[in-house]
Amino acid sequence: QRDREGLAFLRRRRGGGRARQLRYLSDSQEYARRATAVGAAAYLVKPVRAGELHILLEKIRHKKAQQARETLEVSTVAGARQVSPADILWAQWQKDGCQLYLADGQIVDVADVPVLQDALLARRGFLPVGKRLIVNLRQVESVVPRRFILRDKSQVKIPWLQYKRTVAAYMAFLAETGPT
User: Fold this and answer.
1) Burial annotation 4-43 (CB, 10 A radius, 16+ → b, else e)
2) Which residues pair with 135 in a beta bridge?
3) Which of 54, 16, 18, 22 is nearest to 37 (CA)?
4) Are 92 and 129 in contact (CB under 8 A)?
5) From CA 3, how far away is CA 144, in angstroms rounded?
6) What is the pTM of this model?
7) Which of 6, 55, 106, 145 is 20 to 30 A off residue 159, Cα-Cα?
8) What does the pLDDT look like over 27-61, one tens digit per residue?
9) d(CA 38, CA 12)
């Protein structure tokens, strides 16, 4: 019964056009295979052996390390620049352009705003907050009323009317990826 509930969960989470990185644990080989068919990134069958778990965890670490090495070419006022998406705290739009706030404290003035906006929103983990912000959910340390607290202790305000939707999207992100 529980395996069928797990498969139903995977089917619901499969939508949205983005690859899901869910892992599936079952005591049935058949349900584990079905989980892969509906989008699980990997599966383990109980009883789990230490070697199998080690291999799965190594694959996850490798994928995270690979994502950390990815870069995004950003057109700035001073010319093109390579930025790691993992280093972006948030992007903020103003009347005259956009600024990227980076984890090392740098603020980058962006020249080609629509291209940056599309590039960030195409990546998993970047969430629009209000009309003028995109936040990197991997940089969020906690959520307090109407604010994200980021790892560098900066705060990003969440518009009151979008608070429930924004927090729900963040919680869904955590459910998919686990704590970052």
Assistant:
1) eebbeebeebeeeeeebbbebbbeeeebbebbeebbbbbb
2) 90, 127
3) 22
4) no
5) 35
6) 0.64
7) 106
8) 777 776 776 666 666 777 788 788 888 887 887 77
9) 10
